[in-house]
# Entry
Amino acid sequence: MGIRKEIDESRQGEALLMEAKEGEKGKGPVAAGRKLYIESYGCQMNFSDSEIVASIMMDMGFATTGDHREADVIFINTCSIRENAEQRVRNRLKEFGANKLRKPGTLIGVLGCMAERLKAKFLEEEQLVDVVVGPDAYRDLPNLIGRLDEGGKAVNVLLSREETYADVAPVRLGGNGVSAFVSIMRGCDNMCSFCVVPFTRGRERSRDPHSIRREVEGLLESGYREVTLLGQNVDSYKWKSDCGNETMNFAGLLEYVANVSPLMRVRFSTSHPKDMTDEVLEVMSRHANICKYIHLPVQSGNSQVLERMNRTYDRDWYIGRIEAIRRIIPGCAISTDIICGFCSETEEAHQDTLSMMDYVKYDFAYMFKYSERPGTLAARKYQDDVPEEVKSRRLKEVIDKQQLHSLYRMEQHVGKVHQVLVEGPSRKSDQDLCGRNDQNAMVVFPREEGIRPGDYVSVLVERCTNATLIGRRVQPGHEVSSS
Ligand code: SAH
Ligand code: SF4
Ligand code: F3S
# Structure
């Protein structure tokens, strides 16, 4: 659920418009007065990258706008994870094409994973595109924009083994001023056979923990009260100082960040079952401000499928990790990702996924039909042989089951008092406020004078749907929460 923020679009398929808060930056000399519009698709890493891009562009003098019609430069930060993610981007590009007619001179740039996957081919396929920039090449934007200004087109899709943008202060875009993403590593060294990410994001590298901590301290000072540490596989975070006498793993980093302030909640994503250690779970249990919520993608409940997926764990290993979470952090919420209809998935294998769901009873899940991605191990080695209608039926069974489990998990919160970090007005009514509890469930309660985003309040949950807890504020200590 933690990751069930509105912007987790690799999974949900919408985009988020991004505009920096007024006065944040944008006074640089080169592009004074020009406006940038960024639209982001994909995972949180992409959204976090857009904040890096905005920072670099604002240093050049660009200001951001939430209206693409008035933009001089339109960037679309893209995702390649499934075919439909790419199709959405292509459709959107066609719409942006109209801007070029209305406002000649408008520049259109494609950033992110699709840029990396298709490289210069993008310029041939989509005539409207002026610049293609891969995820490790954003520092080159001033140069690339300069080249466009001279006429012509530009591409930089070089991947790097070192780039972490550690020293670029992200410009917070489109957020609520309470919760921010902090990138702790880039790339991925796993080779899950279905996955395009290692090709689009390159080799794994970990960011300097001191720069991570400074960023979190800065966020605290600006009023933020929650950070989500981001990486494709946070458990393999591994940093070594240049001189080699200082090292840090993920458990160490988590503790280092949690110690910034008890007022700052810490979340993280994504955990990989093969790497998630008891040491991390113990750090979580020791720190009240590390949220009791883990996103632990299972992908399939069947060991043969997991092997073909090259996930490097099997069903028993995964169950062992769930047991460790339950033992070390009782009440911890767990969410997952599931792929339905992977190559040669039998009906029995599908049943194993359903029974895994029954065993864990996930709080939340992102569920997908397998989509073959060009160049991946699975595309080269296996047949995408599960018929479309079978994939759809299995996906529906998985979704139906998850809805029951989500409701079950939400019901466990009813009648208890939860500490809620207020994010702002609820989406449905401005008479209500909303925020998340420790386990990342969304809690809605009546608005009250004097309560502001960033405040912690105690809410007695009185009822729920399968996605929201509904309650009223009570005095702290009103009732002891067991969740
Ligand atoms: N690093 C994360 C996953 C990032 S991608 C991890 O290892 O768990 C997010 C999710 O997209 C994956 O967990 C997977 O469930 C899904 N996904 C990735 N490639 C896919 C594909 N080719 N078809 C369908 N779903 C896919
Ligand atoms: Fe993809 Fe696997 Fe890396 Fe996740 S861990 S990004 S699924 S290769
Ligand atoms: Fe998509 Fe790239 Fe993220 S493929 S899920 S935007 S790493």
User: Anything to note?
Assistant: The two ends are 16 Å apart (CA to CA). The mean pLDDT is 92.
